[in-house]
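Bumping with the actual sequence this time:
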Amino acid sequence: MSTRFTIDHLGAQADGVAKTDNGPVFIPFTLPGEVVTAARQKNRAELIAVIEPSHARADPACRHFGTCGGCALQHMEAEAYNNWKRELVVHALRSRGLDAPVADIVRCEPHTRRRAVFSARLTQSGVLLGYRQAASQTIVPIEECPILLPAIFERLNDLRRVVSLAEPGKDVLRLSVTATESGLDIDIGGLKKLGEKPRMAISRFAGGAGFARVSLGGEIIIEPRKPIVTFGSAAVEVPPGGFLQATSQAEAAMADLVTTHLAKCKRVADLFSGSGTFALRLAAGAEVHAAEAHAGAISALDRASRHTPGLRPVSTERRDLDRRPVTAKELSRFDGIVFDPPRVGAESQVKQIAKSGVKRVAAVSCNPVTLARDLSILTEAGYKLLSVTPIDQFLWSAHVEAVALLELPGRPRR
């Protein structure tokens, strides 16, 4: 049974929110001001028809929009979309009482995403490969994807072949695919076992297909070429399953903000460093200490720093910064810090930064809510929040990256 709703605003997950006497109702693929009909189930509803469309409504860029679970906002005109994403950051800061200049959002262009996770399974009619439908286990097979780099999208048939050769039976596979400078890096997840025959078949195919590497849950099956990405002047051999920013353009924008802010620092701590996105750029002008929990990532950073001429000394440490943050005393020897934690933020580590007295801090985050919490800890300790720059790394999704720059006033530079 359909009900008529008027959309009041967009929620944090990009669903339209209609106010009713029984509480808010969340309706995907709707926009503020629209009048729609939808089938309600408790506090959610499935859109049936748009009766009065918003002036900000646009034609989706992809035929799969609305069924594929990857994109939430292709139906929103670009300027309104950019403003909404920026406002996610503004609202999160205000909720913590933070007043700071928030820059215009750094846009993400279509066909730039260099990593993706596909779901796949073997059916009687062949390999089904695509994205999961929202809130469902259903795999939506894709015929186009306007967010992906052509280097990935143009190889979908080859990815299907890898799935077929793996002989997954009834297993649903998860293919994590990264476009590196030396070819695709593919990690297969969800496979209960891989026999010797399919292992050899995948190896032969991968070599002929020009893949850089194929691994199974992080275990390398074949690596014809080291998967390489470049951070600054350093060529980095990224580990299987290692973190990499979703687009190189967003990475460059973040790195430029961080390195400019810390340009005059002589000793910098890079916390949650990954494989060296910031550390290897900062090492062009400063001594850097990098701390990261992922063994493969910190090893990749260490190798790259030792084999890149012209860098200042880079020390590395495998360390779980949630359980064992770098202490204020340890941090006091640095004059700059950058941290880029997972979505949960870095509350324990930030409390140590707040007590360290380090002059300049750059905070990078993919979650405005936890970023605002962490920034409030620093501002309460006396840090001044100089600027926040939203970066749209995840096109047409509800996610937004941000870089915040802080300085501790009234202290001479070491």
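The tokens above came from a reply further down the thread. Residues 2-57 form a domain with the OB fold (Dihydrolipoamide Acetyltransferase, E2P) fold (CATH 2.40.50.140).
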